[in-house]
Amino acid sequence: MPTRNPGARWSQWLEALRLQQPCVSSLVVDSCSDDGTNFTSLPAGSRCIQIPVASFNHGGTRNLSLQHLPPATDVVVFMTQDALLADVDALQKLVSAFDDPTVACAFGRQLPHADASALAAHARLFNYPDASRVVSLADKDRLGLKTCFMSNSFAAYRVADLLAVGGFPSHVILGEDMAVAARLLLAGKQVAYQAEACAYHSHNYTPLEDFRRYFDTGVFHAREPWLLDAFGGASGEGLRFVKSELRYLLKHASWLIPSALQRTVLKLLGYRLGRAEARLPLALKKRLSMFSGFWD
Asked: Which of 96, 92, 128, 101 is nearest to 112 (CA)?
């Protein structure tokens, strides 16, 4: 798990890990946190290494962690510091996907945190339904880009399959998980969604943060054009999300509909600017991006 100033939820994350049955070992890769977090209280069998803040990258840092796996590790789980395991057997349920030898990676269901806004809660319910599924390349005509949907906030990989496709892309602004899932699908493997394996993970983004996140997504798609060439664009899924969000808000928080429509415009603008990032000056890209360190 990569960390950077994990803050108040750190103790909850550790406790959820300690309670896992069976016990697991863990590796924390910390980007020189300076918020006073105590990394010496990890469960037995776990450890922490530190890297410079400037060296962090969503793909490269996870590749670094692969070099520290114990010998003969079959399956590796990746999480983020704000994803809290919901049950004592959450990891066991996640990795049970690999009972099927054709499954190369799996991701679990993300539930909204207790403090999630209606917008954040809907995003989790839309992207992480209550029904498990296993997809292959044959599903791309039906699911499009959603076929290779994946989230390293709570995901697992068969190590041999992950290494066979070259690990994660070493320098990406985000989307390292989706890129690997796509490569595994193209290699004839399957991707599993384990709805019974749950973790609490959501973000109450501001409108500006939504814009920046979608700008970075546009950058990712612009720099990895093979992904859209192989699986198709994301416009259909985006329209389905907006319709679902409006129905959800009508039922649960109708006063947020104007904000949701504003955010939809900002997301679209951010994404289109990201897709055109090659024509933008570096200084502007750093201001528009959620991960400004990527551009250094």
From this structure: 128
